[in-house]
Design brief:
Layout lengths: L8 H14 L4 E6 L5 H7 L1 H13 L4 E5 L8 E2 L10 H8 L4 E2 L7 E4 L19 H5 L4 E6 L9 H9 L4 E6 L2 E4 L2 E4 L2 E6 L13 H9 L4 E2 L9 E5 H14 L6
Helix pairs in contact: 1-3, 2-3, 6-8
């Protein structure tokens, strides 16, 4: 396998295109940190760089999903007005006139592409039944971690925790009023969050053991250098979900 230092879009295009050519990737869920592309972004301009990056997936008929979390715990939330601060690409997709964004005020997701409706009109729970994550199951989805190591975490773990009934988390209901272009979408959206009632325990998430397990099983694959901000990691959604559930059932504290 040819491995590049990711310093320009051509090299990233080559790496991703080869993988997309070899696998049936209907949906790409993206975690990105573009610090390695500082010069390319400066030369091309941020809008052009991000548009070209998304074109890699569009040219293969692959829809894109990105987290656009805003953590709006009170007041009002509008998916096109309350903008995420998770990253340049996340906000770019959220603001695109071609994208769809879910209505969850804490954990919203935006999607662009032929199946972008997959994030639209989901249930009020951020994880578990009728969530974006449940809808991604069985749809040919891959996670891609670009410039961000898998060990830094995956929000999929919270879907696993809710599905498997993690003892250290509980459902929290939020009174945030959700509106979409002036139309009310209701309130009482929920999220499966860390318990705060156990003295001396914060139940902070750690993903190192899970990450190592996914690599050991060959589920997670590095497509590029593992240097800081250089990695391109591909992880099939279905295999990762099933493996993480098995990991949790073997050790219910594996993620904390």
């Amino acid at each position: 396998m040819v491995r590049f230092r990711l310093v320009n879009r051509t090299q990233l295009d080559y790496t991703l295109s080869n993988f997309l050519d070899a696998h049936e990737v209907s949906i790409a869920y993206l975690y990105t940190d573009f610090r390695a592309f500082g010069q390319a972004i400066k030369d091309q301009g941020k809008t052009v760089f991000l548009s070209n990056f998304l074109d890699i997936f569009a040219s293969h008929g692959t829809s894109v999903v990105v987290p656009t979390f805003t953590y709006t715990t009170s007041g009002k939330f509008d998916p096109k007005k309350n903008l995420t601060t998770l990253g340049a690409l996340n906000r770019f997709v959220q603001l695109s006139s071609q994208s769809r964004t879910s209505f969850h005020p804490i954990f919203a997701f935006s999607s662009i592409g032929s199946v972008s409706d997959i994030v639209f009109n989901v249930g009020k729970s951020a994880f578990g039944r009728d969530s974006v994550f449940e809808r991604l199951h069985g749809k040919g989805c891959f996670f891609f971690h670009i410039g961000r190591h898998l060990s830094e975490g995956s929000t999929l773990v919270h879907h696993v925790e809710q599905t498997c009934g993690a003892w250290y988390r509980q459902n929290v209901i939020f009174a945030t009023e959700v509106e979409d272009d002036g139309e009310s979408k209701g309130t009482e959206f929920t999220a499966f969050l860390r318990r705060r009632d156990v003295p001396g325990r914060d139940f902070a998430t750690q993903f190192r053991k899970a990450s190592d397990n996914l690599f050991e099983l060959g589920i997670a694959r590095e497509l590029n250098s593992t240097q800081n901000f250089q990695n391109v990691t591909a992880v099939p959604f279905d295999d990762a979900f099933e493996s993480l559930c098995q990991l949790f059932y073997a050790d219910s504290s594996v993620f904390i």
